């Protein structure tokens, strides 16, 4: 039987417990996941793609069927290259919806063979975003409870206060 591989794309700057919850639950639906890390230069990420790949790899090392890669092309071209047909995205609040809706419809127009699947955030993580974690770090607050320990360490070492 053909394996169902989903691609979970994002900036992951940095990866949070909310992302990890989507990955854990996504693995119950799919045979494998590729976490695809976008360079996202317009977002001016705090961590380089290589750093983000390293931190995501470390975060998912307990899973056998998760691969982590960087990509800098059109997402649908990346999926075609990987012979994958499913984009996995997480949905938090209503404000996520408009952007995700636009992106899903644009991708479907460009590549009708690819489906976007959305998973609703877990209650505990509904407010969690990489952007707020960086803001907390900048302002000297505690962020250990929002990210895995090695990510908290990398954030501390980046010293963005
Ligand atoms: P992007 O730049 O593509 O938005 P992000 O790393 O911010 O990348 O997010 C990647 C995906 O993970 C998006 O679909 C986003 O909605 C989802 N996501 C981010 N944080 C959470 C969370 N706390 N709960 C559920 N989904 C989330």
Characteristics of this structure?
161 residues, alpha/beta, 5-stranded parallel sheet, globular, binds adenosine-5'-diphosphate
Your description of this structure?
The chain is an alpha/beta fold and 161 residues long. Helix content is 40%, strand content 19%. The chain contains six helices and five strands. A five-stranded parallel sheet has the order 3-2-1-4-5, sandwiched between helices. Adenosine-5'-diphosphate (ADP) binds at residues 10-12, 16, 18-19, 22, 40, 89-90, 92, 96, 121, 125, 128-130.
* Secondary structure: number of strands: 5
Helix content: 40-55%
H and E string: EHEHEHEHEHH
Ligand identities: adenosine-5'-diphosphate
The strand line-up of the biggest sheet is: 3-2-1-4-5
**Alpha-carbon Rg, integer:** 15 Å
Give the oligomeric state.
single chain
The N- and C-terminal alpha carbons lie at a distance of 51 Å
